[in-house]
Design a protein that fits this description.
The chain is of the alpha/beta class. It folds into two domains: about 140 residues, Rossmann fold (3-Layer(aba) Sandwich), CATH 3.40.50; about 150 residues, Isopropylmalate Dehydrogenase (3-Layer(aba) Sandwich). The protein has eleven helices and eleven strands. The strands form two sheets. The protein has a six-stranded mixed beta sheet with strand order 8-7-9-6-5-10, sandwiched between helices.
């Protein structure tokens, strides 16, 4: 057996790992021919937060409206050689004002989506959350990662890994419905939702197993619609058919999950980042449950991630447009 001392691990470039499929390329392909989404880019004051939306505009995913200090935005563009011709700039004095202005534009119908730039997530969400001036709806706001894992045959959605720290059962109903609706927009007509815990049996000492059982019964009664739910399921038997068979789990979801609904933010955030940094996964992120979808990128995200997040957002907006035009909706 070869010693680990002689094996090189290139953890800095997980994107170099071999891929079975490129699901994100398929998402980008699906966006071709659809009208671009008018999207406010909030405080795009560094290279990637400016280059990402400009590239998305070049691919006709979005029509960007750059909201932030104009002098700083143009300074970044000049330094990086980014062409801003044709881009509308709404100048604000600082990032806090940029967040408030972008949210106000969304409320007024001037833009159809928001994309986070180089400001902190808390700063943007502070403008989004207030009931009177923000973008709340009757749904709980939640976040979804769409993960393209090289060793897995299809994309996996993880929710919620960025917004709800310790969601209640009621919160999880909204989180589940948000991700189900997004899955429909991404052409998964009946997503298989695995409600994760540490074990696959109901244990009164583990609250997430009780939530899982309740969510499944609520789906049976029509309180959650459009998907097949099962849980509690541990990660291995949610993803691996072999693991599910070994544990004698007879379920249409086990081993076939399209969605992983996690117990809390800590579990979801660690899971998503482990897939990125240890398994070479690509991750696109979007916030749902708001008046308009929000691309909540990390400051560490590269241009490709921002581009695919824009594609996911575009398909979500397109599905919402169809729903509003459908007389039966």
């Amino acid at each position: 057996m070869e010693s680990l001392a002689n094996v090189t691990f290139d953890v800095a470039t997980p994107e170099a790992m071999p891929r079975r499929t490129d699901s994100f390329a398929k998402l980008l392909k699906r966006c071709e021919g659809l009208p671009p989404v008018v999207c406010a880019i909030v405080h795009p004051c560094d290279r990637d937060s400016l280059l990402g939306p400009i590239e998305a505009a070049r691919r006709e995913l979005i029509e960007p409206v750059l909201v932030g200090p104009e002098e700083r935005i143009r300074g970044v563009a000049d330094t990086e050689g980014i062409d801003l011709s044709g881009c509308r700039i709404v100048s604000t004095p600082h990032s806090h004002a940029a967040a408030e202005k972008a949210v106000a534009m969304a409320r007024a119908g001037e833009v159809q989506a928001l994309m986070k730039g180089s400001l902190h997530t808390d700063e943007l969400m502070a403008a989004v959350v207030p009931s009177a001036t923000g973008l709340r709806t009757d749904r709980r706001i939640s976040h979804v990662f769409i993960m393209d894992v090289p060793t897995h045959p299809h994309p996996i959605a993880i929710t919620d890994a960025a917004i709800n720290i310790a969601p209640t059962l009621e919160d999880k109903v909204h989180i589940a419905q948000n991700v189900i609706d997004l899955a429909h927009a991404l052409s998964v007509p009946e997503p298989k939702v695995a409600i994760l815990s540490a074990v696959e049996t109901v244990n009164p000492k583990i609250p997430s197993t009780l939530d899982a059982a309740a969510l499944c019964k609520m789906a049976d009664r029509g309180q959650i619609t459009g998907a097949i739910l099962d849980g509690p399921l541990a990660f291995d038997n949610a993803i691996s058919i072999e693991a599910a068979h070994t544990k004698k789990i007879n379920s249409p979801v086990a081993g076939r999950a399209d969605v992983l609904l996690v117990p809390n933010l800590e579990a979801g955030n660690m899971l998503a980042k482990q897939l990125v940094y240890l398994a070479g996964a690509d991750a696109a992120g979007i916030v749902l449950g708001t008046r308009v979808p929000i691309i909540l990128t990390s400051r560490a995200d590269n241009v490709r991630t921002r581009l695919v997040s824009a594609a996911v957002m575009k398909l979500a907006v397109q599905a919402a447009r169809r729903g509003k035009c459908d007389p039966a909706s």
